[in-house]
Amino acid sequence: KNEVEQSPQNLTAQEGEFITINCSYSVGISALHWLQQHPGGGIVSLFMLSSGKKKHGRLIATINIQEKHSSLHITASHPRDSAVYICAVRDEKLTFGTGTRLTIIP
Amino acid sequence: NAGVMQNPRHLVRRRGQEARLRCSPMKGHSHVYWYRQLPEEGLKFMVYLQKENIIDESGMPKERFSAEFPKEGPSILRIQQVVRGDSAAYFCASSPPISGRATRNIQYFGAGTRLSVL
Predict the structure, then answer these.
(1) Chain B interface, mutation test: which of A51, A94, A98, most B Cβ atoms within 10 Å?
(2) CB contact under 8 A, A41 and B112
(3) Could you give the CA distance from residue A100 to residue B6 in angstroms, rounded to a whole number?
(4) Between the N and C ends of chain B, which has fewer C-beta atoms within 10 Å?
(5) B90–A contact, CB cutoff 8 A
(6) Phi and psi dihedrals of B16, rounded to 5?
């Protein structure tokens, strides 16, 4: 059973700051997802990656398969980035981390 | 191209009633996943279905819960004789078909159904 840990659990930052959210897992996987859950509860898939790095706008996701670790970065953070960010790893099925609650203060 | 559609968005049931949650996957997607998010907890996998087949139901409670994805129509998650502990957000996700297992496909999530059991 894969154990997925995210850090930090809560993060508050000023608008414009560079944000990093970390995810570690215990067992080898085929892919890792980063999801965003808005305050209203809806979930958006941000990235799926199995190696290296992906970038979409101000969001960057990296993964190190050997170290079983992934990071999600947000550059020039904005209050609309406030949400819960969830890491999910895929072996046979998705196993989710408990999420990181990000609050960006104007 | 509409996204994953779930309905209803909010469902209120009294203890002992049945809850039926619907999920229409994105057009062209033949893989459907159901997840449950209990209050103050993370998402947990429940079941993975393809058209007319349950592929993996290892996350489903053994009693009262069932899921189907018929040839025509939406996927249905059915909870019989609901109890207060069933109150949660239920999310559906879909992914497109690929050869072999869909282990590398990104999943697209619906907005969820919030079930409240009184």
Answers:
(1) A94
(2) yes
(3) 25
(4) N
(5) no
(6) 95, -15
State yes or no: pLDDT of A80 exceeds 70.
yes
Backbone torsions φ then ψ of A81, nearest 5 degrees: -80, -10
Q: Which of B41, B45, B114 is nearest to A99 (CA)?
A: B41
User: Omega before B8 cis (within 30°)?
Assistant: yes
Q: What is the band of B103 on the pLDDT scale with cuts at 50, 70, 90? A: very low
Q: What pLDDT is recorded for position B102?
A: 46
Taking CA–CA distances from B101, the nearest residue in chain A reads: A92
- Backbone angles phi and psi of B9, in degrees to 5: -75, -35
Q: What is the pLDDT of residue B118?
A: 95
Q: Is the Cα dihedral B82, B41, B8, B118 positive or negative? A: positive
